[in-house]
Design a protein that fits this description.
The complex is a heterodimer of chains A (462) and B (471).
Chain A (H helix, E strand, L loop, with lengths): L25 H6 L3 H30 L3 H27 L29 H4 L7 H4 L6 H10 L2 H9 L1 E2 L1 H13 L3 H16 L10 E2 L5 H10 L25 H13 L10 H15 L8 H12 L4 H18 L4 H8 L6 H18 L6 H9 L10 H16 L8 H17 L9 H16 L2
Parallel strand pairs in A: 1-2
Chain B lengths: L8 H10 L12 H18 L10 H13 L3 H17 L3 E3 L15 E3 L11 H10 L10 H12 L13 H25 L3 H5 L2 H7 L5 H20 L1 H10 L6 H41 L13 H11 L3 H8 L3 H15 L19 H6 L4 H11 L1 H25 L3 H27 L8 H17 L1
Antiparallel strand pairs in B: 1-2
The chains are: A mainly alpha (462), B mainly alpha (471).
């Protein structure tokens, strides 16, 4: 490192980790016309008016020294006006209650099955040790079998043994599977998940697992677990308002193990296909619905990995059909509020299948938003026809349409070759960015304008 | 051609900032502001990662995303910014070997190190950068960390359980852990390709080496804190259910779903933090190793200075407090270094007159795990070791060392399928198991009432099973 002697030494700069958020740039703030400023202006105007009128009345009163009643009446009138303004302003402020996405996809938990302990007699791994002379030290017995097995699992021996023996017996496989999905203990959950996932994802042979596993779960086993966690398979965000503060406890921690296990299952299709196409479609739908539940905000990475794996589980032929089926399913389930944006945006843009699904979901939702519309051009035509000056124009809806259209058009590689759609889309964006007044204070009006302007700037520039 | 692909991230930044779409930088609190920030992060992602030929975002954009990670007040924002930074890191590596992405890896030309000098880095050293960054943004938290802030971060992580950190709505611990994970990924992306060159001139300039060598870093304390973090976090994992009850009982203002979201995310983040911490320690030990090698070959210069190897600090820490041994060894799983730690620990206490010669390159005795196991063959020697280390610690070390050695042997087995070698390796495995069992026999012979720990029993079970497999 070359350093100038006059320069301060590196420890003379302090960057305190815990420094509170910095004071914001004043220049930037000045450029903003905030709600506060507007309110302030309004008050100022009102005050001026009031002062003027009071002066006026007072001077009048001085001149005439006549009717106190008159003054009282005027004062009362003014008070009323001021009160009215005040109330209006208050209401204006309250209107800023912002809608948010979120669907409750978990209801009440059901009773978990008792953890299935391996049938000691049929478990050769444990059984064969009983006659070993070392058992005088280890003290393994049929009664203590499960505790011993837990130790083997947590300290990593079980996984080592699986690879060294190249074999996992049925009772062990079942026990590890149930422990993973139903044990309330974090450690056991973690290590049983690792046990399964490491074995499944170990890549040595192309078409064969490196370890012979005597028992494999089926999709129904996974579905059952989800059901016991309280997952609402028939969820629909259309039904009633979302209760974000409900008293249901939320999914158990095991859901993480569930997601991870499903992810691991997807990568071994060539060795052991666990899901049928229909089942895989359902898994995609389930993961999207988990994305819609705010309780899963912290597990984005996990869900994303799972989505990636399951989407690539399909063969190319399967995917063509499945992608549209999934999109239609989501479109009829998800409500036409901010949730449908979340349903689209939870699909990352990592690869072409993701983009395809993203575009189809957005398209299907748009189709279901406009009655009697059955192609893309018609959607855009209806959108272009919207009159933003109309008092009843619902800008939240406009915002949702804009985001959906953006995703439908821009995530779809086929549309690039369709100049008609592309031109209409550009026109629509220019409409949004030019025809909505900057002073339109209705909520979401500015969001639509900004977003469209941003898109125009980047997607229409030649 | 889609013009959408043509634009630069810089423009997004300018566009968005100028247009005040992001409102004010400190206004994280309202859902509205959160939505705007999410839109910003999405726009950065869309323009940089989603397309094949996209460019690296500008430093200002990087700084802004970093700022969101460090100061965001909602789980959604913290998670999204963390993921974006990690993805950017993978997408636009600061350092890479030129040979690695060639279509023909078989070509024998030595791979060259390609360094994107101007690229934004979350850790900085020279003050030139400091002032530049300071001018560019008025936002402190968007600035890269300097070595002392890195140290402070680790210290905070080390104190994670001592304070009432895991309150139901406190995002700070989570934020710190994610920040740390990101920093480790950045350090790793910089260090691994440099270390692969086997050239000290490259290795010297790695962020990691500069971080550890900085005058602002109290290096010993850093390594100790790293170990403390591992122990604290593994304890947290074990006691998670306790926190669950705490969560239920606490009366919090924040909506219930937020608590559940945090509660679902924490164990995942804690687990990944443990993995990151292990990676960091492994990297430091790898750096020490490279440095020692360069030293022997005469490539180091005086400015490189001297540093106690991390291994020595770890060993001191383990010896100093016995409670740390089981916790640390349970989390630290990388077999090669784990075995090294166990073997060196054991050899510290196995009486050998030639110990002093260990520091020289040619060791005069069998300083392997097998060699250590052999020292347990006679009763007197075993007694001596137990007296110095305590019976429990001996058991922990032997069991964990045995496991690491098993992993290494099994790994060799898996990658080598020659029929002849196969048998040789199977013999090596059962020999190891046999030696391990005898060492434990000898251990027990010193004291009839010695309690064998669960992990010792499990190790014996494994050894016996492997032996019976062969017969």
């Amino acid at each position: 490192m070359d350093m100038n002697i006059d320069d301060p030494l590196d420890f003379e700069f302090e960057d305190e980790l815990l420094k509170p958020a910095p004071v914001i740039n004043n220049n930037k703030r000045k450029k903003l016309i905030g709600l506060d400023d507007l309110v302030e202006d309004h008050y100022r105007e009102q005050n001026k008016l009031l002062e003027k009128q009071t002066k006026h009345t007072k001077s009048k009163a001085k001149k005439n020294k006549r009717s106190y009643d008159d003054e009282d009446r005027k004062e009362a009138l003014l008070t009323r006006i001021v009160e009215k303004c005040h109330n209006q302003l208050k209401a204006f402020g309250e209107e800023e209650e912002i809608p948010t996405w979120g669907v409750q996809v978990f209801g009440d938990k059901k009773a978990f099955p008792p953890l299935h302990l391996p049938d000691f007699g049929s478990c050769n791994l444990l059984q064969s040790f009983l006659n070993n002379k070392l058992n005088s030290v280890v003290g393994l017995s049929a009664e203590k079998g499960d505790i011993f097995l837990e130790g083997l699992l947590i300290n990593g021996w079980l996984l080592k043994l699986a690879f060294l023996c190249g074999h996992v017996e049925e009772p062990i496989a079942i026990w590890a599977f149930n422990t993973m999905l139903y044990s309330p203990k974090e450690e056991l959950q973690n290590f049983s998940t690792e046990f399964w996932c490491v074995i499944l994802s170990s890549r040595k042979e192309v078409d064969q697992l490196p370890v012979k596993i005597d028992w494999f779960p089926e999709y129904t086993d996974l579905r059952r677990a989800l059901d016991l966690y309280g997952f609402l398979f028939k969820f629909s965000s259309n039904v009633g308002p979302i209760n974000l503060d409900s008293d249901t406890e939320g999914p158990p921690q095991n859901i993480r193990a569930w997601v991870r296990f499903v992810t691991a299952c997807c990568v071994i299709r060539s060795k052991k296909p666990i899901f049928s196409t229909l089942e895989a479609e359902e898994v995609v739908e389930i993961i999207i619905s988990l994305f819609l539940d705010r309780q899963f905000q912290g597990l984005m990475v996990l869900l994303n990995d799972c989505m990636q794996a399951i989407i690539n589980y399909f063969t190319d032929e399967e995917w063509c059909l499945s992608c549209e089926k999934i999109a239609k399913f989501i479109a009829c389930r998800v409500s036409k509020d901010l949730n449908c944006i979340q349903a689209v945006e939870c699909l990352s843009e990592a690869d072409s299948r993701f983009k395809q699904l993203r575009s189809s979901v957005a398209y299907q939702i748009l189709l279901s938003c406009f009655e009697g519309v059955n192609c893309g051009e018609e959607i855009l035509r209806s959108l272009i026809a919207v009159n933003f000056k109309d008092k009843s124009c619902d800008f939240l809806k406009m915002y949702i349409y804009l985001v959906l259209t953006e995703n439908w058009v821009l995530s779809n590689s086929l549309i690039e070759d369709n100049p008609v759609i592309y031109e209409m889309f550009s026109l629509y964006l220019r409409h949004c960015s030019n025809l909505i007044s900057a002073t339109d204070l209705r909520s979401y009006a500015s969001k639509v304008r900004h977003r469209a302007a941003y898109l125009v700037h980047f997607s229409v520039q030649k | 051609m889609d013009p959408w692909r043509e634009h630069h991230c810089e423009e997004i930044g300018r566009f968005i900032f100028c247009d005040n779409m992001l409102a004010m930088l400190d206004a994280f609190d309202s859902q509205d502001a959160v939505d705007d920030w999410i839109a910003f992060l999405d726009a950065v992602r869309a323009s940089s990662i989603a397309f094949e030929h996209a460019k690296r975002p500008s430093s200002k954009i990087f700084g802004t995303v970093f700022h969101v990670l460090r100061t965001g007040k909602s789980l959604e924002l913290i998670m999204a910014s963390h993921k974006l930074l990690v993805d950017l890191e993978k997408h636009f590596p600061r350092v890479h070997l030129s040979g690695s992405d060639d279509s023909q890896p078989s070509s024998n030309s030595p791979s060259k190190l390609v360094v994107a000098e101007e690229a934004w880095s979350p850790i900085i050293f020279c003050q030139d950068n400091v002032t530049a960054a300071g001018e560019a943004g008025d936002k402190e938290c968007g600035r890269p960390l300097d070595p002392s802030s890195f140290q402070l971060l680790i210290e905070e992580l080390a104190g994670i359980l001592t304070e009432t950190q895991f309150e139901s709505s406190n995002l700070k611990p989570l934020q710190n852990m994610l920040l740390f994970q990101y920093l480790v990924i950045a350090l790793e992306g910089d260090f691994l390709p440099r270390n692969a060159t086997m050239n000290w001139n490259m290795q010297r300039e790695s962020l990691l080496n500069m971080l550890l060598g900085s005058r602002k870093t109290i290096y010993k304390g850093l390594v100790k804190d790293c170990m403390k973090v591992i122990c604290q976090l593994s304890q947290f994992q074990n006691e998670l259910n306790k926190y669950a009850e705490f969560k239920k009982s606490s009366e919090s203002q924040s909506p219930k779903y937020r608590q559940t979201a945090l509660f679902l995310a924490l164990p995942e983040v804690v687990k990944n933090t443990c993995v990151s911490m292990e990676k960091l320690l492994v990297m430091i030990m790898g750096l020490d190793f490279s440095k020692k090698k360069a030293d022997i070959e005469g490539h180091t210069i005086r400015a490189d200075g001297t540093r106690t190897p991390a291994m020595d600090i770890i060993l001191d820490e383990l010896a100093y407090s016995e409670d740390v041994v089981p916790l640390f060894l349970q989390i630290f799983t990388e077999p090669k270094w784990k075995l090294e730690i166990v073997v060196q620990y054991l050899w510290k206490y196995i009486t050998k007159p030639s110990v002093r010669t260990r520091k020289t390159s040619g060791s005069t005795y069998d300083s392997t795990f097998h060699g250590a196991l052999r020292c347990f063959s006679n009763k007197t020697g075993t007694k001596g070791i137990i007296k110095k280390m305590g019976a429990d610690v001996v058991q922990f070390l032997l069991a964990h060392g045995f496991q690491a050695q098993l992993s290494i042997l099994a790994e060799e087995n898996r990658y080598d399928n020659h029929a002849g070698d196969q048998e040789g390796r199977a013999n090596a495995l059962s020999d190891l198991c046999q030696m391990f069992i005898s060492a434990f026999d000898s251990l027990r012979s010193t004291n009839q009432h010695m309690e064998i720990l669960p992990i010792g029993k499990e190790a014996l079970f494994t050894a016996a099973t492997v032996i019976s497999m062969k017969s």
